Amino acid sequence: MLADRLRTASGVVLVAWEHRALPGLAHALVGHAGCDRPLPTVWPGDRFDVLWLFMPSEAGWHFWQQPQNLMAGDRLDTF
Fold first, then answer.
1. Among residues 3, 12, 75, 79, which is most buried (max CB within 10 A)?
2. pLDDT score of 65
3. What's the average model confidence in pLDDT over 17-21?
4. What residues make up the domain containing 54?
5. Rounded to two decimals, what is the model's pTM?
6. Closest of 49, 52, 50 to residue 39, by C-alpha
7. Which residues partner with 52 through β-bridges?
């Protein structure tokens, strides 16, 4: 499974995936280790300008969202 491969990867990994599948992948990645904040359960179909970042830690996972803000019309909010 992709989440297992990501969990054991070294270095930075970029995953580009079908947006409806990303929340499930995120939850599978974090698994029982837990996360420092709630994970979104949906990826809005009109958002193409946000990165989800995950950093493993001794306490579980650190998660944050980063709006790209690269193009006119990109939004600064997250979901």
1. 3
2. 96
3. 93
4. 2-67
5. 0.86
6. 52
7. 65
Is 47 a member of any domain? yes
| Distance from the Cα of residue 5 to its chain's centroid | 15
Q: DSSP label at 35?
A: B
Distances (CA, A) of 67 to 2, 16, 42: 24, 15, 16
Name which of 27, 34, 37, 33 is nearest 1 in CA terms. Answer: 27
What is the rounded CA–CA span in Å between residue 50 and residue 32? 25
Would the pLDDT of 32 be above 90?
A: no
Number of domains in the chain: 1
pLDDT score, position 40: 95
Find, among 68, 73, 6, 69, the residue nearest to 33 by Cα: 6
